[in-house]
């Protein structure tokens, strides 16, 4: 039994994927079996400890790392911020500069605000400027570099392997925020830290995974517990962690086939939106992209009005337009790319998305855009 | 040169005003848009690129100049 997405066509997987049916089953089972404190000495505690170890082993195997390099956090945001702050603290003797791409998730940018941060730009397609990255990480005083594996807003896959090679040459550890990639596409090696978020792959919300490779000095930004293990102080939500691991194992089993299926739907959206909506810009790299995510901007259209119009028809999508942001600022990702920020729609697909839902979206979109433009006097 | 006062207007209104009023100037003439929405500095150059007009830059804060090319 899966949990319904809540809307007729939920197309915002990049924010949260509906709970995978396997995760729902594992969650119910772990609520009965995984409630005890894993650090105690009785049998219920040992069961909880076994569940925790099994879950960590799933994460370690999926990410190709040792089990003791994996720590669990209350969200992908918490994991990413722990990577940045812990990595900077551990390398304080080398400097206090954090080099990051201009298109990092805001969670990373907020953590970066604690450091002497250097932002490296991207091209019109949203791909990292590697020459500028090389210069930035090679400068004196750089403690850490941070790069998102693929843009959560426009889908462009970043040159992680090449960026990691520049970091290695400069002796700077690389943190990769892999929230949009884990469970869908492989992340190239070469990083020292990686974070991921379970509700992006069909696990429950409230589970973040952080990998800190051996050899990297990482100092927790929080007070430590008696066990001196890396990780958030206090109890983790073990049933959610178990469910997250079950979901990850399930989606990795079908990831390649799903990537092919969703990528074809994204190609269909890219082609049809460009063909049927006048004055539209489909943004992000058309080829070097995530399989499940596509973003476009419609000239003369209020992004918030378009989101509401789509919602009334049962479509859940998100937008990088300023009118939809709590800050009333346009998306820093769209700004960094220099592409239109108003009338922006991000569509992201998941295991439950059908070709029929996509066709229905493509059928209603042109008329909605036309209506909004007419109302605006265009 | 004509000047469009779009101060206080939220995007996409300044871009809509620019698209409508640029028809009123001759090819080669300049339209100056006054806009303080944070998206204007990004979206006016993007509009110029999409509609083949020339973005001349921002001579002062909250002011953007566009030359009509077509």
Automatic annotation (TrEMBL), chain B:
It comes from the Bacteria. Transmembrane segments: none annotated. InterPro entries: TusA-like, TusA-like_sf. It holds the Pfam family TusA. PROSITE patterns: UPF0033. Residues 4-28 form the UPF0033 domain. Belongs to the sulfur carrier protein TusA family. This is UPF0033 domain-containing protein.
């Amino acid at each position: 039994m899966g949990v319904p997405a809540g809307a007729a066509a939920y197309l915002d997987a990049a924010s949260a994927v509906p709970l995978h049916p396997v995760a729902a089953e594992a969650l119910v089972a772990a609520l009965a079996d995984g409630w005890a404190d894993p650090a105690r000495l009785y049998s219920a505690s040992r069961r909880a400890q076994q569940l925790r170890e099994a879950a960590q082993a799933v994460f370690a195997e999926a990410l190709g790392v040792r089990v003791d390099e994996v720590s669990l956090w209350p969200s992908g945001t918490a994991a990413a911020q722990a990577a940045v702050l812990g990595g900077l603290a551990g390398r304080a003797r080398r400097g206090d500069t954090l080099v990051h791409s201009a298109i990092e998730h805001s969670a990373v940018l907020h953590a970066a605000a604690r450091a002497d941060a250097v932002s490296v730009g991207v091209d019109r397609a949203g791909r990292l400027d590697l020459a500028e990255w090389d210069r930035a990480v090679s400068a004196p005083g750089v403690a850490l570099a941070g790069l998102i594996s693929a843009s959560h807003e426009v889908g462009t896959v970043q040159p992680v392997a090449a960026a990691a090679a520049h970091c290695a040459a400069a002796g700077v550890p690389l943190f990769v925020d892999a929230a949009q990639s884990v469970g869908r596409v492989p992340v190239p090696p070469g990083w020292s830290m990686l974070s991921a978020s379970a509700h992006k792959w069909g696990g429950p919300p409230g589970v973040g995974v952080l990998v800190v490779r051996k050899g990297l000095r990482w100092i927790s930004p929080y007070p430590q517990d008696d066990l001196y293990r890396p990780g958030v102080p206090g109890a983790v939500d073990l049933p959610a962690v178990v469910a997250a691991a079950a979901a990850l194992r399930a989606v990795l089993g079908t990831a390649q086939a799903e990537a092919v299926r969703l990528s074809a739907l994204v190609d269909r959206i890219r082609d049809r939106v460009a063909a049927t909506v006048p004055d539209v810009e489909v943004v992000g790299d058309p080829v070097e992209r995530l399989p499940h995510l596509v973003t476009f901007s419609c000239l003369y259209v209020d992004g918030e009005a378009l989101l509401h119009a789509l919602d009334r028809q049962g479509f859940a999508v998100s937008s990088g337009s300023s009118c939809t942001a709590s800050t009333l600022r346009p998306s820093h990702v769209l700004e960094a790319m220099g592409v239109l920020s108003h009338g922006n729609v991000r569509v992201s697909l998941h295991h439950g998305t059908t070709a029929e839902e996509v066709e229905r979206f493509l059928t209603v979109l042109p008329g909605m855009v036309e209506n909004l433009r007419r109302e605006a006097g265009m | 040169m004509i000047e469009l006062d779009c101060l206080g207007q939220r995007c996409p209104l300044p871009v809509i005003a620019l698209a409508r009023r640029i028809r009123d100037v001759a090819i080669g003439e300049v339209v100056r848009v006054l806009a303080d929405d944070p998206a204007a500095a990004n979206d006016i150059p993007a509009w110029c690129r999409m509609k083949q007009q020339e973005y001349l830059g921002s001579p002062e804060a909250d002011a953007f100049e566009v030359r009509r090319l077509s």
